[in-house]
Amino acid sequence: MRIIRDVPRRTVTHSPLGKLLLILLFTGIAPASSLAANLTRGPYLQMGKPNGITVRWRTDSSTNSRVQYGLTPGNLDHHVDNSSQTTEHEIAVSGLSSNTLYYYSVGSSSQVLASGVDYKFRTSPPAGTVSPTRIWILGDSGETGQGPIDVRDAYYDYPGSADTDLWIMLGDNAYSTGTDSEYQSVVFSRFNAFLRHCPLWPTRGNHDEMHSGSNNDYYDFFTMPTGGQVGGLPSGSEAYYSFDFSNVHFVCLDSEGSNRTASGPMLSWLELDLDATTRPWIIAFWHHPPYTKGSHDSDDSGDSGGRMRDMRQNALPILEQGGVDLVLSGHSHSYERSMLIDGHYGTSNTFNSSMIEDGGDGDPSGDGAYQKPNSVGAPHKGAVYTVAGSSGETSGGPLNHPVMVTSLNVMGSMVLDVNGPLLNAVFLDSNGNIRDHFQITKGGGTDTPQSFNSPNAGLSLAAPAPNPFSSQTSFNFSLPTAGHVRLVVFDVAGRLVATLADERKSEGRHHVEWNGKDSAGNRIPPGTYFVQLEANGERRTQKVVLMDAARG
Amino acid sequence: MLTAPASVFAHAPDAQQIERLDAEIRVHPNDVDLLLRRAGVLKEAGRPEDAARDYEHVLALDPHRVEAHLGQAIVLLDRGDFAAAQHALDACPQGDALLEAQRWKIQSEVFRAQHFYIEAAKALDHSIAINPTPRPEDYNQRADLAMAAGLPEEALAALERGIAQLNGAVALRWRAIDIAIQTQLTQSALVQLDHLEEIMPGSALVCARRGDVFAACGRNLEANAAWTEALARIESTPPSERSPADQSLEERLRRDLAMETQP
């Protein structure tokens, strides 16, 4: 978190007029804010939390910094300033209301550089409450060419992408060495529209190398919570950190440059951090996978300097003791996804049936979701391990690691939806097809607990009744104020199945029935579906199970 | 300067990367960036002698290239040739702040490898002081050097500096407690535990650790009380809200308390 520098060391080429203005600036004749600057990066969002967010951007000349914000794009009635002259702008906005949509602009005290309806963010839900959470995962996406753009666009077209709560980059975010210009091209320009409304949480890969000088490497580009500002305990390092969102505790580790021994600072911190969390879901991510037979081989201790072995042998026992549910990594340019396993810390030839908690495919339409015993993380009850390093290209490999139930040499990204006791994950290929699907449930879960909804919100969507159903079920919901309401049904892959309401409704209680048919009037296949209520920028979700009509 | 296409050799395992870099370097034999990159991959792949040759080649082309001097020093240090490593460091021109910090860190390693702990500590202090982004690992290593020199108070002071500099990094606090227990600097350990209690309120783990501190200096009654309190904290937490670590801690505490109450 190398924040605003008084005198950036980056060389900037100035026009004759610019040079004159600079002379005036440094002689104190003209105020800096009178200079017209151009936006060259961002804005992009970092460290989203219930009461604040960090906004960053870059300009081609030094100015002071201002973020204006408000509840509508036309009324940005609050602002935060920093008077330092800089090209690397970073403003922490605080004192916000949780789970609230804000619009913002960036610029200086004399100039607005970017504003409009697309410049917005939603603050995180209140600490400790439960809210449906959408997460997008990209691994090794930093390649040039059309492939990674197709991966991006496939997700942009995927249902719910506009409401993504956060996204994660699994390292090797910009090839080939993570220079400023490479990051500019394949991160900040490529994802410009997404970065401005969705906070990014990155980890570092082996190609995100350190560069000397200022403002030109991974740690300069991003702002990470080294002090536990977003939940979790202070790591003191930008390389590894943790944060909370809704009922999920996220842990980012650094498999590239930090000490990976069990007694080193990173894993000591991890042990304490996992002890301190009370979030029921724990998702960890880093770059080098503990299990892979893709373009890298986790059995080969000479591959990648032994980093895959180190993480498997040293980090996994702590994570599994701490109740981790899902581990995300990249590095191999493939998609590999394990069954629910525990206690496998050796090479692949040491894997045996005692390490399998659930050997099925985790697919609700296949062997069924993986079940974990209760709503809070329990030690050694199994985790799913994924390699999702094919967002930039594929590189093949034998793809035969025995812990994996799915191994694909296919480009794509992962999409996670965490809804109360249900974690739903898909691998979305670059053509928009779902190529893998699994779920983890906690508490035995086909029932729909009330905790799916935020307990202190005025908007509510009651559990459907009956549920499961075969011919007809009903949804009751309540609106705190009159407004436009959208009530829709998604399948587990996130595809829109039916729209049950899309109209203005009055304040108070409402009742909608559903006969298990899609918008075209065709009966949909039996299975699990999600009903989502959206009103006044808020969302509530319930799960509903449709049974075969013959069994009803 | 000629440069290779951006990502021709970017993503393969070490052997393939080396092959591809070899091919690129055949086309651009004097591209120092390519040579430095190959040296890095060779070092990673366990071929330090080949890496050293690339560093030498870079220095022949550009004697002022700091990264090559530093890379060469690391290879020589790993080989155990401390005099040559020192010579490489002495010959290294001054770089920017990050490279200077790296240079002094390698200098510290060279001293440490020769068991000159005081000198190593001074070099690491300098590295930390000029590093724009020091890490917990740096302060941890600094504490290691002080402990190796038999100076636990200095180790604790180094960790304190790290805690202050790095937003209260909890791993450094935990390490400070370890050292304080080991050297019976009880008051220091208790102060660290008070800080941890602030950010982990109600933590049974922190409370149990307080018991460990008391036990280490023979204050058994207070140890017993702290462990009992830790157990009570776990028991008063609804099962659905207990952290996984609480379960194993509960077993340990019951065991320890049972031993304490045995005649």
Keywords:
heterodimer; A: 552 residues; mainly beta; Immunoglobulin-like; Purple Acid Phosphatase, chain A, domain 2; 7-stranded mixed sheet; 7 helices; 35% strand; globular; B: 263 residues; 14 helices
Number of helices of chain B: 14
**Major beta sheet summary of chain B:** none
List SSEs of chain B in N-to-C order. HHHHHHHHHHHHHH
Q: Roughly what fraction of the amino acids of chain A lie in strands?
A: 25-35%
In what order do the strands lie side by side in the largest sheet of chain A? 9-8-7-20-21-22-17
- The structural domain count of chain A equals 3
Overall number of strands of chain A: 29
Q: Report the β-strand fraction of chain B as a percent range.
A: under 5%
Gyration radius of chain A (Cα, Å) is 24 Å
Overall, the morphology of chain B is: elongated
What percentage of residues of chain A falls in helices of 4 or more residues? 10-25%
Low-confidence stretches of chain A: 1-33, 446-457
Broad structural category of chain A: mainly beta
Regarding quaternary structure, what we see is: heterodimer
